[in-house]
């Protein structure tokens, strides 16, 4: 009924529209209405419907927006975030900026492209007629000076949803509702920040947003949110500094520097590196006091700044998505000719529009490729000063621990694009042959016990964490696919060195020399056969952790485990016996939740169907994974009895879930180290025993 009611309001006068705006605020603030459902697990339907009505009516009619925006700000000041649903719907309807979580992989790839590609391929629906309404929303926020204050209030509210809002009101105490309030605050902030960055001019945005140091110190904004808000400002400042250096070089050369197209790419990249260093230096100094000095003994503030300031746009060009969109545009003129409803004039105009769009897309792709090359030159220049290790043991432990805690885990659950970014950045660190960074230990820490991470996620964070794990598993299985790929991308790289050398701060050349020396020694490396052992261990650990969550009886753990299983399904499980174990636990969840928690039953049933359709492929991949694995490590993992496999049932909800956690996982020991040790006569299985086990 919302649509017909909104259409009928076109007969109202200006005074009536003002009264309507007042009536909406009065209805929102009615103390007699419950804002949550009777079970306390979700937001009430009347509030959701009123939010949808607000978005539709404010978009269609020129109603004063200041009142409703000020109401939301006042509610945030009072530590109440339920009314963010109003802001979320208003921004969605008036600007077309979506706060979507269930994006396809192709849409996420498109979001890493330029502005034009994001509009064409990154949106769920074709956004039309939002230019005037988005301009009206922007002007209202600027005139009332609420644009930046709303961002800061949402950033602060996200931190106190769990500890303040739910503690003061018992009706909000249900864990499911707490997670929804946190997700709503996070999603609305990302949506609102994206709207401001895309609608305000860069100069206006830079002028209104406080500097990074003020965001972190004065407004107590978390590092992830502060960098999210400041990234458009960084890119603009780097571009200005780049042009300034270019003008200085031309002036120093007597004006004979030539145009930009005649410059070599090496010269442009060198200038970009210099501009980036000049702009990011104050930011690096601003984050230095945030952590103890001990942290900076292992990981540099420069690396922290670089990691948080970049996006997927800076790391890779979505070539496949560009090619697909260009192919669509190339085929469009033929379809226009077949359309008999268009006259010749309209056909000509439509063809011209498509040709212009294709040309702009090609130019946008070219510009992004140049930008990615410049960013890679910057990373190549910085990499020797990213990680330090005063002791060989700390190279294995503290450096990776700090990287996970300060960078990877906070960002991989921020947005879906950030989840893919984190996996891509780990891969780039490896491919750059960064000194003092162990790729193998990093992957081991991520995979070895995901129980606690899965348990601590909200629903939307579980979706993002699942995307991150899927992207990491994709890299692992790519290296595992064949020996040629592994030898090309892993052998000789410092990330696969098992014997670390001591390196100190400020000694970049020594870092590179030590890394090269270690890489040159093949005995210090994990070879392909050992890597396959470690891959099998990681799959086993993931299965064990998710089974712990599925058997916990806790709603959040079961829901998050199922969510992660959905996301990693293309890459896990790939071993048939692990698939069988997962299937049995899912069947148990279906039987237990059929009459109790219907949403869990529906999720489990849906996953069961998809798992069964993939199970035949698991059997084929088992042979690929376990071919010629004769070491005792294989028998330890794959021949364990099922009751031994699930001894630690009660994990994150109570007792210890596993022998290791994400922060303190054990270092994967190469199989050669195990096989090189002295064995007893009974350690090696006989051929008869082997046949029985395989049977």
Shape: globular
Question: What's the average pLDDT?
Answer: 83
Number of domains: 3
Q: Estimate the helix proportion, in percent.
A: 55-70%
Characterize the main sheet: none
SS-based structural class?
A: mainly alpha
The separation of the N and C termini measures 63 Å
Radius of gyration: 28 Å
Report strand %. Answer: under 5%
Summarize the structure in words.
The chain is an all-alpha fold. The chain folds into 3 domains: 2-99 and 131-200; 315-381; 410-674 and 681-694, no CATH class. Helices cover 68% and strands 0% of the residues. The protein has 34 helices and no strands. It has helices spanning 2-8, 14-28, 45-60, 66-77, 84-95, 105-111, 115-121, 131-143, 147-168, 175-199, 202-208, 212-217, 223-252, 265-287, 301-309, 312-315, 319-338, 344-382, 392-396, 398-412, 416-431, 439-448, 451-455, 459-480, 483-489, 508-520, 528-550, 555-567, 576-593, 598-626, 632-638, 642-645, 671-676, 687-694. Helix 9 packs antiparallel against helix 10 (175-199). The longest helix is centred in the middle third of the chain and has 39 residues, at 344-382. It is globular, with a radius of gyration of 28 Å.
Give a short synopsis of this structure.
The chain has 695 residues and is mostly helical.
Question: Secondary-structure map with pairings?
Answer:
Blueprint: H1 2-8, H2 14-28, H3 45-60, H4 66-77, H5 84-95, H6 105-111, H7 115-121, H8 131-143, H9 147-168, H10 175-199, H11 202-208, H12 212-217, H13 223-252, H14 265-287, H15 301-309, H16 312-315, H17 319-338, H18 344-382, H19 392-396, H20 398-412, H21 416-431, H22 439-448, H23 451-455, H24 459-480, H25 483-489, H26 508-520, H27 528-550, H28 555-567, H29 576-593, H30 598-626, H31 632-638, H32 642-645, H33 671-676, H34 687-694
């Amino acid at each position: 009924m919302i649509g017909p009611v909104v259409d009928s309001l076109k007969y109202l006068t200006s005074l009536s529209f003002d009264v309507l705006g007042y009536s909406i605020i009065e209805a929102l603030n009615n103390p007699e209405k419950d804002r949550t459902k009777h079970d306390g697990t979700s937001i009430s339907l009347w509030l959701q419907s009123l939010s949808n009505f607000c978005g539709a009516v404010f978009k269609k009619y020129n109603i004063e927006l200041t009142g409703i925006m000020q109401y939301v700000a006042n509610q945030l000041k009072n530590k109440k975030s339920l009314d963010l649903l109003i802001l979320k719907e208003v921004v969605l309807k008036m600007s077309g900026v979506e706060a979507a979580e269930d994006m396809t992989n192709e849409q996420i790839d498109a979001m890493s492209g330029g502005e034009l590609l994001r509009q064409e391929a990154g949106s769920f629906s074709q956004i039309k007629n939002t230019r005037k309404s988005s301009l009206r929303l922007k002007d209202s926020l600027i005139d009332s000076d609420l644009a930046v204050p709303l961002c800061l209030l949402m950033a602060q509210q996200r931190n106190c949803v769990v500890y303040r809002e739910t503690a003061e009101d018992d009706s909000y105490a249900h864990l499911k509702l707490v997670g929804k309030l946190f997700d709503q605050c996070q999603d609305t902030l990302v949506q609102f920040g994206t709207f401001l960055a895309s609608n305000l001019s860069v100069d206006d945005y830079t002028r209104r947003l406080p500097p990074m140091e003020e965001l972190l110190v004065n407004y107590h904004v978390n590092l992830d949110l502060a960098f999210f808000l400041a990234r458009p400002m960084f890119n603009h400042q780097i571009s200005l500094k780049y042009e300034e250096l270019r003008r200085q070089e031309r002036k120093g050369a007597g004006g004979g520097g030539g145009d930009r197209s005649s410059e070599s790419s090496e010269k442009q990249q060198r200038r970009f590196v210099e501009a980036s260093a000049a702009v990011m230096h104050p930011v690096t100094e601003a984050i230095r006091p945030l952590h103890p000095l001990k942290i900076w003994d292992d990981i540099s503030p420069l690396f922290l700044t670089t990691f948080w300031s970049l996006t997927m746009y800076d790391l890779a060009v979505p070539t496949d998505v560009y090619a697909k969109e260009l192919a669509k545009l190339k085929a469009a003129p033929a379809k226009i000719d077949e359309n008999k409803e268009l006259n010749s004039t309209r056909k000509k105009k439509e063809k011209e529009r498509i040709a212009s769009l294709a040309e702009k897309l090609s130019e946008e792709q070219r510009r992004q490729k140049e930008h990615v090359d410049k960013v890679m030159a910057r990373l190549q220049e910085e990499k020797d000063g990213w990680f330090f290790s005063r002791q060989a043991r700390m190279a294995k432990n503290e450096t990776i621990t700090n990287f996970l805690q300060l960078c990877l885990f906070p960002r991989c659950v921020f947005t879906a694009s950030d989840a893919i970014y984190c996996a891509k950045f780990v891969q780039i660190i490896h491919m750059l042959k960064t000194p003092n960074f162990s790729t193998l230990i990093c992957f081991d820490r991520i995979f070895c016990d995901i129980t606690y991470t899965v348990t601590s996620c909200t629903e939307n964070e579980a979706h993002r964490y699942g995307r991150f794990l899927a992207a990491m598993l994709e890299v692992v299985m790519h290296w595992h696919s064949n020996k040629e790929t592994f030898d090309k991308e892993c052998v000789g790289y410092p990330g696969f060195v098992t014997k670390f050398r001591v390196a100190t701060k400020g000694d970049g050349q020594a870092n590179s020399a030590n890394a090269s020396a270690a890489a040159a020694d093949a005995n210090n490396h994990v070879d392909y056969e050992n890597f396959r052992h470690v891959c099998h261990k990681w799959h086993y650990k993931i299965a064990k952790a998710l089974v712990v969550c599925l058997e916990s009886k806790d709603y959040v753990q079961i829901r998050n485990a199922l969510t992660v299983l959905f996301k990693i399904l293309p890459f896990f499980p790939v071993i048939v016996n692990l698939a069988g174990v997962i299937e049995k636990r899912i069947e148990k969840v279906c039987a237990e939740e059929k009459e109790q928690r219907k949403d869990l039953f529906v999720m489990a049933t849906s996953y069961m169907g998809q798992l069964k359709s993939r199970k035949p492929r698991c059997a084929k991949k088992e042979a690929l994974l376990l071919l010629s694995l004769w070491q005792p490590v294989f028998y330890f993992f794959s021949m364990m009895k099922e009751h031994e496999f699930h001894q630690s049932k009660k994990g994150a909800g109570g007792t210890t879930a596993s022998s290791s956690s994400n922060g303190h996982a054990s270092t994967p020991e190469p199989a050669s180290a195990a096989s090189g040790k002295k064995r007893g006569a009974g350690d090696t299985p006989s051929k008869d025993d082997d046949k029985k086990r395989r049977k």
